[in-house]
Amino acid sequence: MTTTHTPAATLELSTIQPIAAHERHGRARDLFTIWFGSNIMLLTVVTGALAVTVFKLPFFAAVLALVLGNLIGGIFMALHSAQGPQLGVPQMVQTRGQFGSFGSLLVVALVVIMYLGFFASNLVLGGQSLNARFPAIGTDAGILLVGVVSVVATVFGYRLIHGYTRLMSWLSGAVLLASFVWLLFVHGLPADFLQRNQNNLPGFLGALSVAALWQLAYAPYVSDYSRYMPQDTGSRTAFWSSYWGCCLGSILPMLLGVMVGLCVSDGNVIAGLIEMTGGLSALMVAVFSIGIAATNAMNLYCGTLSTITVGQTLLPAWTARAGWRALIALLLFSASLAIALLGQDNFMANYTNFILLLLYVLVPWSAINLVDYYLVAHGQYDVPSFFRRDGGIYGTFNWTAVNCYVLGILVQVPFMSTELYTGVVARAMNGADISWIVGLGVVSPVYWLASRKRQRALQAARA
């Protein structure tokens, strides 16, 4: 396995180009720390609190829903991560192997929008948290501060982001542990803590779906952070390192959110967390806000790579390097900053609707990508074809994938349950949302069968 002692702050020159064997570096434990360290932040705490503040579950039901959702969603996340060492290209570039060069543009564009949304959500939460604990820092100033740190890490690229999250694994992990100890043994929990809220199936399925989506949302970029790993890292090792890093890094702060959410009466989880952690709150907010910047750097980095992927599809001769990454990152940051400043007053309502809508467009893509990689292509792709305008052997449109993607969205419609729209089946189930399960269950076998038929037709045509 290749080893290197290059400093973390070394500028990454590549963007979406394939990573050559002599440039490969890193160990499987780096995949654990990048996902463990990047998940321990305030947005994860707030997401966990949704189980009791929005979905109104009691403690044990909330914990069960969040743990199951993360463990189930983490399977899909880690299966995508295992693709990185094998192919050495970003996830959205590899999507051309399923959808074709132009067919992939819809998915890639949606991914850019998705990470702009997550980036803006993190900016708002970071700014509001800093202002709540340090009033001298205005919310707008806090938003800008978190954003600037994120942009710097994105400009330097892969190594610095890995180094950043490696540090945060230890720092945020220690503060998270201290927060649990403080809540349990210093502040204490209300006497009726375990009696608050009632079990309800719609709430359980809603919380489970949100937790599963938390993991699925990483799928479009997870292999971006494993693509530099040597090929002999192995798919199994990459899978488990990513799986446990992301699941543990998500479940633990979500449990903290559940505890705080059950203790606050107004649903303001961040204010409640600051009040309940007392003398620890200054350190906690500072460290978790730094953690937000680490995660935001990952969102901005992959949004930038996806934007470059769109540009390179339309202009195949364009070779984007570090300078282009910096420029595009600044443009995307400006757009997210505007979204954050304008939408900060309705953060929780906007965030809840945003992550549920994401679920409906991510699930069919993930199903198609994983079925194609593991069951159709068996991990063997013609990487040079990814960078041809005509798609090479994959063509400009793979209508099998495009049609299955559209089908995957449509079959979820009756099962959707959001403030904006509730499907007929979801209404019959008292608002329970199982759309993502239906989407996975329908798209996976349909795409596999249709792809086998397509392959036989292509083989017959070549004969």
Automatic annotation (TrEMBL):
Query: How does the record say this protein sits in the membrane?
Result: Multi-pass membrane protein
Q: Which domain of life is it from?
A: Bacteria
Per its UniProt record, what Gene3D superfamilies does this chain match? Hydantoin permease
Is the keyword Membrane assigned to this protein?
Answer: yes
Q: What is its main location?
A: membrane
Transmembrane ranges, per UniProt, are 32-52, 59-79, 99-120, 141-161, 167-189, 201-221, 241-262, 269-292, 322-342, 354-375, 396-414, 434-450
Give a Gene Ontology cellular component term annotated to this protein. plasma membrane
Presence of the UniProt keyword Metal-binding in the record:
no
Give this protein's Gene Ontology molecular function annotations. Answer: transmembrane transporter activity
Coiled-coil stretches, from where to where? none
The UniProt entry's sequence similarity note says: Belongs to the purine-cytosine permease (2.A.39) family.
Protein name as catalogued: Nucleobase:cation symporter-1, NCS1 family
Q: From which source organism is this entry?
A: Pseudomonas panipatensis
